[in-house]
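Dear support,

I submitted the protein below through the web form. The confirmation email said the job was done, but the results page showed an empty box. After a refresh the structure appeared. I'm attaching both so you can tell me whether what I see now is the final result or a partial one.
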Amino acid sequence: MPKKTKSASPKPTTTHLALSDLHIHLKSLEKDHQSLLKKIKKKRTELNNFVEKMRSLATEMFQKMQPSLEKRSALDQEIHHLFDEIFKTRKFGKTTSKKIQSLYMSLQMEGIISPKSSSEEDDDSELDELFENSEPSNQDHNQKHYEYWHVDNESETPSAPRTEDSKKIRQTFLKLAEIFHPDKVRDNETHKSHTEIMKEINKAYQEGDLARLLEIERKHEVGDNIDNNSEDDLSQRCKKLEQQNEILQNQYDKLKAELRLAKNTPEGAMVAEFRKAEKQGFKPFDFMLKTLDIQINIIREVRDFVKDFKDKKITIKDFLAGPESLQDDEDEIMESLLEELMEEMGEVFIF
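What the results page shows now:
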C-alpha cells in the first residue's frame, strides 16, 4: 500500500506543474500575438495612408500645374521649330553658323529650353515624363504605382520554392478556404456572404498577409478549440503561436521597411516637404505656379526674340547678344525665388 501511494502521488503533481507552466507560456505568447496584430494593423494603415497621400498630392500637382506646363511645353517646342527653320532657310557663314548653333545649345544646357531629342516627339512628352503615373486612373494603375516601392513578399511563385513562412500562411489559407468556399453552401445568402469573405481571404493570401488571415479567422470565430486541461493541446497551441508570432514579426518588419522605402522615394520626400511647408504656413503650390509663370515669361521672350531673328527683324550681332531682360531682371528674380524656397523647404522640386 505505501508503494502505491508513493507511485501515485507524484503524477498529479507533475501534471499540475506542466499545465501551469504551459498556461503561463501560452498567456505570454497570446499577449505577444495580440500586440503584433495591433502593430501590423497600425503600420499597414500608416503605409496605406502615406501611399494615398503621395497619390493625391501627385494628382493635385498635375491638375494645378498642367495648364502652365502645357504653355511652357508649347513655347519650348515653338522655339525648337524656329531654330529648325532658321537653319533650313537662312544662309550664314561657317563661323556665324557655329555661333548660332552654340547659342542654341546654350539655351538647352542652361535649361531655358528642353534638350533637342534625336527623334520627333509629341508636344506633351515633357508632361508625360514629369507626371508619369500621376493622373487618377483605375485600380490596376494604382497597384502598379504602389509596387514601385513595394518590398517583395516571400510568396510562392513557380520559380521559387515555398518558404517555411509561406507554408504556414498557406495552411491558414487552406483552413479558411475549406470553411468559406462558396461552392460548399447552397442557400444564396450564405453563398453571397462566403464569396465576399473568400475575396478577402484570397487577397490576404496573395499578399502573404498572415495578420489579415488571422483577423478573418478571429472575426468569424473559426479558430482552433483547445482543451485547457490537455497538455498536448496546450503544447500544440504554444508551438503554433510561436510559429505565427515569428511570421508576424517578419511581416511587421517588412511593413516598416516598405514605409521607410516609400518615404525615401522622390514622391515620399515631396510629401514630407509639403507637410513641413504647410506647418510653417508656406504654400508650395503657389510658389511653384509663380516660378512657372516667370519661366514661361522668360521662354516667351526667348521665343519672340528667336522669331524676330528668323523674320530678319534683328541683326546677327544683336541676336547673338541675346535679350537683355534674360540676362538681368528675370534671372535675378528666379535666383531670389529659388533661394527663398530653399530656405523655407530645405529641398525644392523645380520643374
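Response: this is the final, complete result; the empty box was a page-load delay. The longest helix spans residues 10-89.
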